[in-house]
Amino acid sequence: MHQPARPDRYVSFIGIEGDANSRRLIELLRHHIDDPAKTNRFWELFKGKLEKIKQPDKTSGFKQDELYLIHAYINNIRELFETYDDQPALALLDRIEAESC
Q1: DSSP type of residue 35
Q2: Positive or negative, the Cα torsion across 68, 77, 73, 91?
Q3: Strand, helix or coil at 11?
Q4: pLDDT digits (tens, 9 = 90+) for 26-83
Q5: Distance CA 82, CA 94 (A)
Q6: How far apart are the C-alpha atoms of 29 and 45, rounded to whole Å?
Q7: How far is CA 14 from the centre of its chain?
Q8: What band does 17 get if pLDDT is binned at 50, 70 and 90?
Q9: DSSP SS3 for 89
Q10: Longest Cα pair distance anywhere in the chain, in angstroms?
Q11: What percent helix, strand, coil does the chain show, rounded to 5?
Q12: Residues 58, 84: contact at Cβ < 8 Å?
């Protein structure tokens, strides 16, 4: 049985929903870090970075987006999702890592 080809980021980003997947992952992440019982100083600072998305005037001219922050903090994000056994979020993180990072 022939399996449809998976998108290959090294060939093309066609078929990869990088921006939409990144925004969805941030929504899943916010579910945890917006909970006062689950947040800490790191995640509070991370929320500040989220507020600066697409505001290069606040980031020394550097354009940040959700994918950039996911890539930069992938290990921290993975650890949080593992801590709370958030399997759907981990699956999406794995997909983003394979397709876009």
Answers
A1: S
A2: negative
A3: coil
A4: 999 999 999 999 999 999 999 999 999 877 677 676 678 899 999 999 999 999 999 9
A5: 12
A6: 14
A7: 19
A8: confident
A9: helix
A10: 52
A11: 60, 0, 40
A12: no
